Amino acid sequence: MRNLDLTSLRSFVAVVESGGVTRAAQAVNKSQSAVSMQLKRLEDLLGVALHERRGRQLVLTEAGDQLLVDAKRMLAINDDVFARMTDHAFEGEILLGVPSDIIHPIVPVALKRFHAEFSSIKVQLISSYTRVLKDKFKKGEIDLILTTETNLDVGGETLKQTALRWVGARHGKAWCVEPLPYVASRYCIFKNPSLQALKTAGINFEVLSHVDSDRAAEAIVTADIAVTAMLEGHHPEHLECIATKGKLPDLGAQKINIYGPLHESDYAQRLKDILGNAVRDI
Predict the structure, then answer these.
(1) What is d(CA 229, CA 221) in angstroms, rounded to the nearest whole number?
(2) Rounded distance, CA 145 to CA 222, Å?
(3) What is the pLDDT of residues 125-180, one digit of tens each?
(4) What phi, psi does 223 have (nearest 5°)?
(5) 8 A C-beta contact, residue 168 and residue 221
(6) Residues 4 and 78 sit within 8 Å (Cβ to Cβ)
(7) CATH topology of domain 6-86
(8) Does pTM top 0.85 for this prediction?
(9) What residue spans define the domains of the chain?
(10) Do 126 and 248 meet the contact criterion of CB atoms below 8 Å apart?
């Protein structure tokens, strides 16, 4: 199987559209002799005459008319593929900060949708505590952040208010123990309001340990050694919200806020919109 040369086809189309070899040579940035040679090679390859002389005019033969239609289509496909594969207009990177306690199920859903629309954009996910993320955002180190907090700072937007719930092991009994065993990571933003709620309700409690990560606290809760506080709908499947029947105080609600993006771009704004929809759909 022999292949048609796209460069020769481009010269052939230029000759037809410009009305002659001289103008075509200028259009494709080649010499007249080079263009004439390309036309001759096409005719030799196909075994047909593409042009014929009628007086001083060079007109297409029937075979030339047919090739012109196919050549334009082939060149259009070539140019479209090349443009799409080499178009770097939307390449870039977004630094997204999200507290670890709300990564699931928000982030997987949002990133999947975003990647389908902007596959060439790299999203670097930074997981940390709300106060750390807000500090980095103020310093310009992160483009876009989600937070969990009771208030909203200037420039932010509240996407949803979600109940803060007591959480324990599935079918666990730790919440019935006195004093109430409680665990949370050292920097958990829900720790202080949870302990304050217990104090206000006059419930004795014991903070088992000040662990350094949410996963460590989660392990202790999973073992039914203690309880903790998490946003409703964001706890792991192996834990459950405790139906305390009034034995433990209500923890109120927390805001899920979004700040940014710091730089204006279509893709950054689109990621913000997708995150907002993902939060609201939970």
Answers:
(1) 10
(2) 29
(3) 999 999 999 999 999 999 999 999 999 999 999 999 999 999 999 999 999 999 99
(4) -80, 0
(5) yes
(6) no
(7) Arc Repressor Mutant, subunit A (1.10.10)
(8) no
(9) 6-86, 90-282
(10) no
